[in-house]
Amino acid sequence: MLKVWMLIITLLSFHSLAAPKSELWPYWDKHTQSENSIDHRQWQALLDRYLITQGDNTLFRYASVTSQDKQALNNYLSSLANIDPRQYTKAQQYAYWVNLYNSLTVKLILDNYPTKSITKLGGLFSFGPWDKEIIEVAGKPLTLNDIEHRILRPIWNDPRTHYAVNCASLGCPNLQSQAFTAQNTQQLLEHSAKAFINSDKGVKLSKGKLQLSYIYDWFAVDFAGKEQLLQHLSQYRDDVAAFKGKIIYDYNWQLNEAP
Questions:
Q1: What is the DSSP letter of 169?
Q2: Chain centroid, CA 187 distance in Å
Q3: pLDDT tens-place string over residues 99-134
Q4: Residue from 174, 219, 177 nearest 19 by CA
Q5: How far from each other are the two terminal CA atoms of the chain, in whole angstroms?
Q6: Could you tell me the residue ranges of all domains in the chain?
Q7: Contact between residue 108 and residue 166 where contact means Cβ atoms under 8 Å apart
Q8: pTM for the model
């Protein structure tokens, strides 16, 4: 009985905190016109080696990651931690933060593998690791929530960011097979948005019912309401623009693990 109540409390806590507000951390809202670029080749090499496509999902082969490649991931994260992203252009910064978020998430899973879900990695009364300080950049300890909700969302104000960051879950927009760069960001954002919205885990229209990912409920403010949300979705598929019925939501927290 105690376990049941703990689960209920955890789930209620999650749903009350599932959508942190987009609140700018002004420290990070700086950039330069520097022509310097940030090297993401180590992250790309890991994606090439361990990410596979299966149906609507890209899956990570966590069980196959070698000790050498775990060290390569640590080296990549150390290289990012030693960078002050404020000394780069906004385009370089966006790619930096997305890749940092996604690579940190993979590291969290590898450090706690095997696990059935990232939601199991929080403390006793936590739903997941998103509020845990896990890296320091430019003298500031950061959590995954800091990166997403205090940097990416408020600085760029682009709802497609929700298709870029990956939470290691089947219900999440896919981890992209390409590392983000200043040059490919717009292409990857469009690709990831189209893929997610045209997958059942993103948008499922069947028998007059519209089932959406909970992302569109948790972050409704980023999509500016139901009418604007449908307009957003209809940019990538043409069968939802005129939908007038009830919307339901779903999300699968199972680990995005390759069998």
A1: B
A2: 17
A3: 999 999 999 999 999 999 999 997 767 789 999 999
A4: 219
A5: 33
A6: 37-250
A7: no
A8: 0.93
